[in-house]
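Reagents: none. Just compute today. LacI family DNA-binding transcriptional regulator.
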Amino acid sequence: MSKKLLLKDIAKLAGVSEMTASRALRGAPDVSKATKAKVENIAAEHGYVPNRIAGSLSSQSVNLVAVVVPSLNSYVFPEVLSGVSATLAASPLKPVVGVTGYDLTEEEEVIRELLSWRPSGLIVAGLEHNEATRRMLAQAACPVVEVMDTDGDPVRHCVGISHHQAGYEIGRAVLERGYRRIGFIGTKLPRDFRARKRMLGLSDALTEAGLSFVDQVTYAGDSSIETGRTLTAEILADHPDIDCLCYSSDVMSVGGLMHCLASGLSVPSDVALAGFNNLEILRGLPLDLATTDARRREIGERAAQIILEDREATAPLDPIRETLQPTISIGQTL
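Predicted 3D structure written out:
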């Protein structure tokens, strides 16, 4: 691991005093725009984040664990947060949340702001970040855990599932039940990297069987029951011979089920349906929807455990990489 840069290192690289570098990074009005831009650019280039803890606390951290997620609108990430909160409850640490809206530039800004308060740990959803964010994560003075996904190159610690493998296993389950004309409906693509990996895994399973999607319908907005219902109606109107629809989320598959029930389609006789995430929203539906449990709460719990273990260790832990195994539930719709 590379040496953590201090403010004095940034000042030296910029050719200014440590005081001037500090004032530039704090946006002090008496620092010229040119000097401010130079110091900020050097800090960004090296992944340095200014310390907002003032005075005698400047060398310490606060009892906060930053948790950075793409959204709180879905049912997915609150369950991760529940796992984090439950695990930290017996410790002095408390979670604080930042939301990125599936935007990598916004993620960079959120992480920079959170790290500037010197948290005791950082948990961030996903492995895909821009280069500036990766540098900040690598330089962070606290344990960093990337969660949800293990298909990629973690910066430090990582715990999640293989979304590509999960998509592949869904594809195998669909094929084993005799379905051959398969469609895919997804949201937040291509910005939701994990949903895209599941789609590619599913596609790979079909390719092995000499098949491909009959159609793929994607929507840039959030998952919702209404959107799932609308897109299901559209894809079945264009391709009435589709015999199975796979969705990027359970919320969308619930909308698909609502369309089928309202249209007099029999599930799974006329069309099979499969979602993803095993959300609480599935409980109490007329049919048990096929889904995959992505181990969200367990991922949150384990991420928080890693933060606590690393924080208490006498030396930084070697990178921990843990892949949990999701579970497919066939339900009554596949």
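The longest helix spans residues 296-312.
Action item: order primers for follow-up constructs.
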